[in-house]
Structures are given as C-alpha cells and as structure tokens.
Amino acid sequence: MAELTFSDLSKTFGGAPALDAINAQIASGEFVALLGPSGCGKTTLLRLTAGFEHPSAGKIRIGGETVAGGGRFVSPEDREIGIVFQSYALWPHKSVFDNVAYPLEVRRIPRAARQARVAEALSLTGLGAFANRMPSQLSGGQRQRVALARCLVFEPRAVLLDEPLANLDLSLRASMQDVFRLFHRRTGATMLYVTHDQSEALALADRVAVMNAGKIRQFAAPEILYREPADCFVAGFVGDGAVVSARITGRADHAGLVLNVLGQDVVSRSAAPEPSHVSIRPESITLADDAPLRARVTSCTYLGGRFRLELDAASETLVAFSRQRAAIGETVGVRLHDLWAFRDPEGEVVLQKALADA
Amino acid sequence: MSKAITKSGGSRSLDRLLPLLLLPVALIALGPVLRLLLEGIGFGSGLTTDHLTDVLARPSTATALRHSLITAGGGTLLSVLIGSGFAFLVALSDIRGKAALVFCLMIPMMIPPQITALAWMQMAGPSSTILKMLGLAPPLGSPQPLHSAGGIILLLGIQHASLVFLTLRAGLRMIPAELVEAARMSGAGPGRVWAQTVLPLSMPSLIAGGAMAFVTALGNFGIPAMLGIPAGYATLPTLIYQRLVGMGPSVLSEVAVLSLLIGAVAICGVLLSRLVLKRQGFGLVGLSGAPLALSLGRARLPVEIAMWVFIFAILALPLLALLATSLIPAYGVPLTVHTATFNAWIEVLFVQPVTRRAYANSLFLAITAAAVLLAICLPLAWLMERRANRVSKLLDALIDLPYALPGVVLSIACILTFINLPFTDLTLYGTIWIILMAYLARFFVVMLRPIQASIAQLDPAMEEAAASVGARLGRRLRDIVLPLAAPSAAAGAILVFLTAVNELTVSALLWSSGTETLGVVIYNLEDSGETVMASALAMSIVCLIIALMGLVQAGARRFPKGVIPWQS
Predict the structure, then answer these.
(1) B285, A87: Cβ pair inside 8 Å?
(2) What pLDDT digit, counting tens, does each position of A77-107 carry?
(3) Which of B54, B266, B387, B555 is the most buried (most CB within 10 A)?
(4) Which residues form the ABC transporter domain (chain A) (predicted)?
(5) CB contacts, 8 Å: A65 with chain B
(6) How would DSSP label each residue in B262-281?
(7) Whether B224 contacts B235, CB under 8 Å
C-alpha cells in the first residue's frame, strides 16, 4: 500500500483545462472519494493516476516515487495500480477464472500459487461458484465483483474505481457498497473512488474531495463536509438543506458570530471573520408555533419515521424534518440554531450553476 | 524504483519498434505505385507534365472517366441494396436457414469477374446454350442485352454485394443486444428498432462497406472488359488495358496518368466516407450478447421465399448456364442428352499438365499471401487506431491505392519496380515471387480494414484494464487484442485467400511459363476461343471453392463465434 500525492497537477485537452493545479495527499490505506458533477475533472484525475493520460503540468507520486511529471513517466503496467472500470472491462473471451488469473499470469506466478490466489480472490468477492462462467453469463453485480477480484488478486499499491456502481440497480448498490467496505478493510488498500453520487461518497469514504470545474473545492471527512462546508457549491452539492445569504451584525458571543439570517438574529459557528452565507441543514430547524419567523409549507414527503418539509420563508426555500404530517399551504413557525457560516462572495452564481448541473 | 525504470524501458522499446513496421508496409504497398507515378511524370527522361495534360485533355479519357463513375456508382448502389438487405435480415430477424443463405451469398464474390461475366453471357443472348435447350433463345443476330452499361452495373452490384454484407454484419455483431432490448422495452416494435436504433448504429459499417464496394468496382477489370469492350463502352481500366495491349510498353507513361486518375477518384471516395464516418462515430460500450432474432411474424415465409428466389437468380442460373456450356462438345452446339460430354472436363483436369501446375501455384500464392498479411495487419491496424500519427494516417489513406488501381496497372508498377532489385543484379521478374509481392500490395486493404474496424469498436478500457494489471504492449496485443479481433482477422484472411486463388488481372501480366495461375489458364483458354474448356475449368474451380468453404464449415464448431464469415 502506498500514499498518493498530487502537486500542482494540471491537464488540458486541446487547450481546454480539465484539471487546474490540483494539490492533494492521500494517505496509505485511506479510502478517498472524488465527488462532483459530470465534467468536473474527477475521471481525468483518476486516469492520470492510472497512467492512461500524461499530465500537462505538475507531478504525481505514488509511495514516494514520482510516476509522472518532472521529465518522468511510468507507464500504467509498471505502476502496480488496480483499476475497476465503469464498464467493468472484463475480457469477454476469458472465463471468470482466466480474467482474475491474468494479472498473475503476466507476473509469471507459478500455476499452483496462481490457482490458490485466484480461488482466494474469488471467495473474498463471493464468486467461488462462478469460476468457469464466461462474463456474458454473469449479472451486472457479478461482473463488478469479477472486476474487483481481478484488481485485488495482484495486491496493487492502490485501487482506483471509476463510477463502479453507476450501472447497477439501487438494491445491488447497497450490497456492493458492503463489498467495497469489506474489501477495503481486509486489504487495507489505498482506494480512490470516483462518483457523482454523494450518498455513495459519504457512506464509503474516509475523506471526500468535492470537485467542480477542474478544482478541488473541499477535501475533508464526510461529517465535516456536511457540518462545515467551505463554500456555496459544497454546501449545495453535499447533503440536504438550504444556503442563504447572511449579514454580519458585528456582535459575537461565546458560541459564535451573531448573523442576520432571513431577518432573524442567529448565532452561527464560523471559521471566517466576515461570512457571507449560512448553510441551514434540516437538523438546524425546529418547528415551533411561537417562533417569530413564519414559513409556508410547499411540499411534504414521508421518508419513513419522519416527514421532509419544504418551506418558503422570505422567498428562500428551507428544508426541515417533522414528526407530524403538514398540510400544503399551512403556515408554521421556524426556529434556527446551530448554523454554519462561511465566506463565499461569488457564491450565488456558483450555487445556481451547480443546482442547474445537478 | 530502479526495477520500475528498466521495466518501463522494455515497454517503451516495443512502443518505439512497432512504428518501424510502417516502413516495410509502405515500401511493399506503395513503392511500386510510387515508381509508376514517377514514370507518369516522366521520371528518367526529364521532368515534364506534357503527356499529363495531353492525356487528361483527350475526350476518350473524359468518356472513360464518366463511364467508370456511372458503372462503379451504380454497382455500389446495387451492392449496398443487396448486401444491406441480406445483412439486416440475416443478423436481426428470425428467418430460417441463415447459414445456407449466407453461404450462397458469398459464392458470387469468390467467382472471378470474368467467369461471372462469362456465366451471365451464357444465360442471355442468341448463342446461350441453356436458352437454346429451353427453346427460349432469341433469334441469331439479336444483341446481347448484357453488353451495356446496365449489364456492367448489374454484375458489379452482384459481384461486390458480399463485401457490403460482410462489413455490415460484422458491425451488427458488435451492437450490444442490450441496446436493442432497451429499445424494445421502450415499446419500439421491430421496424422502429431497426430504423431508430440499429440503422444509426450500423451506419459506420454500412458506409465502410459501401466505400469498399465502390473502390473495388472502380478497379474491376474483368466485367467491363467482357461486357463493355464488345459494346465499345470503355471504362478507365479497360481503356488502360486496350492501350497497353495495342501499343505495348511505349505507352507506360500515358497509362500511368490514367491510373493516377483512378487513384484520385478512389481517394476522393474513401475520404468522403471517412468524413461521413467521423460525424457518425459511436463508442459502443457493453458486451454483444446472443444474436438477435426479431420476429417478422407472418411476413417470414414470403421474405424467405423472396431471398431464395433472389439467390437462385443470381447464383444458380448463371452457374447452370456455365455448366451447360462446359458439357457441350463445341461452342454453339446445343446441349441434349446425346451431345452432352465430359470431354472438356477430362482434358482440363487430367490431360493438360499446365492446369495441374496452375492449381499448385494459385494455392501456394493464396495461402502465403493470407498468412503474411495476417501477421502484419494485426499490429498495423492496432498502430493505426491506437497510436495514430501523421505517418500512419497518410499510410492509412494511401493503402487503398494498390487495391483501387486496376490490376493491370499494379502489374506494370511491379514490373518496373522489381525488374531490377535496387542495389543488386537480382530480378524477381519471371519468378513466382513477383506475383506474391503484387498480391501482398494488392490485398493489404482486404485484410487490414476488417481488423481495423474491429479494433476501432473495441472498448479501449479492455486494453487499459490489461495495462493496469501489468501486461506490456506485446502481451496486450497477444492476449487481449488478438483474440477479440480474431473473428475479423479470420474473415479477412479467408477473403484474401479466396480472392487470391481466383486472381487474374495482376497475374495476367506477371506470369511466365511455370508460374501460371488458375486465372491465367482460364483466360488463355478463353482467349484462344476455347470457351467450353474455359467453362469446364471455371466450373472445376467453383466446385473447389465451394468444397473448401464446406470444409471450413465442417470444422465450424472448433472456431470461436464469428470466425467463419458465412456463419450466423
């Protein structure tokens, strides 16, 4: 297992920038998700790491060895990195066993050892009974497991996964997430996981890099992304809730700054001295009849155990959870608490664009 | 870390070595043509464009060019109609007896054009043996209806329909079944699936097949020679042949200009098809599953009958006419129970040593050409698709040239090039090797295009996956690209073999005593008025080819799916 380091990594395709000066470090054994809308550069970053593309500028290091940049380029076959493709890329002319055995065959592992390791990889991915099938005889989830087994069998320094669940149905996704989690725990492999599905990223990864327009907007643990988003894009793209502009009142107390949000003075946590926006998660809203801020219910969806309400308050759409059903058009009182404030002067534009993309 | 460096050095060296393959390919395929072009602009006698303008300004050139475009264009249209009709029905519908249908459709392409023309002429006109037998022959002196532009278009269209068929069906095989199933699940009926899903996705193959048929029809010599020359209807290849035969090597420069013209038309056709293909390209993701079988419902039986009637008309009738002619004692004698004789067959197969020698020569040339081309074209096609650079793109565009040029011209080019091997006193002229070199140059594209098409449609992730698990370029080519391109490669090799075994136009000018090919012997017999013996030899070759195809068919279970072109 090895750590991955990107320094000032850039990639342009025919003049159009796809990645813009990426700096990031992924620790050995860490499970990192690259999350972002399509076209944000996450797949480009993955392909650069695998060695299928040459960077336009900057460096990639794997376990201290520079594999791209500074006049060096190590070809994909010498990087010892496994990759699981969105299309699985199983070789249709080889059986499941032969697909998984191929990396060992290339490495000239003796037949007996090869068979043992393939059998182990197949049983780890629950494919023991399918060794002699051809890929065309497998379901999507089984093909995905073969791709994973093929990757795991040669003990790569890192494993890259390119939207691995995009072609699977929802119930399979949940069980495949368990497979990935188990795979990561058993092997301790460094994993880089590309997805546009935030629930996948938040559920699986130790840390998530949220990307947009060729840049990493925030790189942090899932709970930090959720509770303390760095800008309007991250706040809007990750998790449920609303992003609302806020005005500084100049006052502060021990819990944080006092900001004017939707006409109310609210105490907010913040890392910036002069925040411009607040992120209002559903958990930050309590419905109370006596609250001064009034809001009209515009939608009510049952999620099992609770209702998700969309509220219209001073022309902003807020999201709240409620134990009771609410009638559309009903007016409720809203109390805000535990908000997170950040500074993002260009926020409105970015947010609009992100929502349109998503 | 040092281990990684030495390893990557090895991989890069193959990456560096592989492009060197372009050099011998360019030399063999394009060297003779280049030599001929130099001859065209007066190489050796001072550079001049005099005869260039002279030849191009002649009215006979313009007429021949117009005739070539009309016949090749019309023939291509007909080929596309026949080939695509059969390809769609065979690949997509639930008609029965697909293998037999495809088998029969392949046969016209494997019969040399002169034989096709000869056979069709035996079926029409006043001296047709079969029409006389049935009492349907028109009165003596009435014109042969096939001696016309329409006759040439008809035969060109039939001759090259299987090119379109093969290319299109190979493309249809690559369409993942899920795409069609997805369309059907969206509520589309078979007609809609065909028009809105299959047709757009198969357009690249259809265009590629059409381009191939056009280029082949443009260079076809046998059919316009047999049908056009008697009618005074000259196309560019027959014009070249007539001038060369009439005037001798003194017109080499002039003929070079005419061939330049054909080359220019062929390149225009290919570039046009590329332009269209570029806009139409799709990357197909997914596995192509079980063969499709959309139900035709009640229309199935009528469609099947129509297809078999069609096959009967274009295949069985002309061959029966040819057979009838081969069984009469002398040309013009009607065939009856009393006149029928196997004399011509016995003469051709057992008495004449030259025909036995021709069989050996033709088989050797065909097998060697197919094997050599197979070995070269796989890495070459990969190089052109995955590591395209300016040189490989240029070669890609020019490699159609030796195939598009009429065989006569390529023969002259080969004589000019190999009569004195550069830097030696050796000559290939008069040996069988000059024919082999000409075949290699000529059939490059026949082998290359199917492989290229299948590599182009291969998901690059297949190779990337192999690279990521540590397989070097050589291994990736052997373990991933080769098996996945094998069906197309095998189809190409079989095409090369069967085309080479029947080849006439190239060998007609390159043979010498001892190196006769089957085509040459047929031509010589025919030329000396031995139409009956020519028909007998031609029929024996048709039987041989059908037997060879049958042999391959018998071993069908041992080949992976898709290796045999006529198998569904």
Answers:
(1) yes
(2) 888 888 998 888 888 888 999 999 999 988 8
(3) B266
(4) 4-238
(5) 1, 4
(6) HHHHHHHHHHHHHHHHHHH-
(7) yes
CA dist A284 and A262 (Å) reads 14
Distance from CA of A196 to the nearest CA of B (A): 20
pLDDT digits (tens, 9 = 90+) for B102-117: 878 877 777 778 788 8
Q: Which residues of A touch B488 (CB under 8 A)?
A: none
Q: How far is B396 from chain A (nearest CA, A)?
A: 24
Over residues A302-327, the pLDDT tens digits come to: 988 899 999 998 888 899 999 989 88
pLDDT > 90: what percent of chain B? 9
For an interface test with A, give the residue of B11, B285, B469, B476 to mutate (most A CBs within 10 A).
B469
Distance CA A205, CA A190 (A): 11
Mind telling me how many Å the CA of B98 is from chain A's nearest CA?
A: 24
Residue found by looking up tokens 């043992």 in the block: A116
Nearest one of B559, B549, B567 to B108, comparing CA atoms: B549
Strands A16-26 and A4-13: antiparallel
Q: Which residues of A touch B287 (CB under 8 A)?
A: 92, 135-136
CA distances to A246, A277, B79 from A317, in Å: 15, 14, 64
Q: How far apart are CA B459 and CA B288, in angstroms?
A: 12
Burial of A358 (0-12, 13-18, 19+ CB in 10 A): exposed
Q: How far is the C-alpha of A299 from the C-alpha of B502, rounded, in Å?
A: 77
State pLDDT tens for residues B48-75: 666 677 778 888 889 999 999 999 999 9
Domains of chain B by range and CATH?
A: 18-45+61-558 (1.10.3720.10)
**Chain B interface, best mutation among A49, A54, A77, A169, by max B CB count within 10 A:** A77
Write out residues 451-490 of B within 8 Å (CB-CB) of A.
459, 461-462, 464-472, 475, 479-480, 483-484
Cβ neighbour number for residue A21 with a 10 Å cutoff: 15
Closest-approach residue (CA) in chain A for B283:
A87
DSSP B283: -
| ipTM (interface pTM) | 0.78
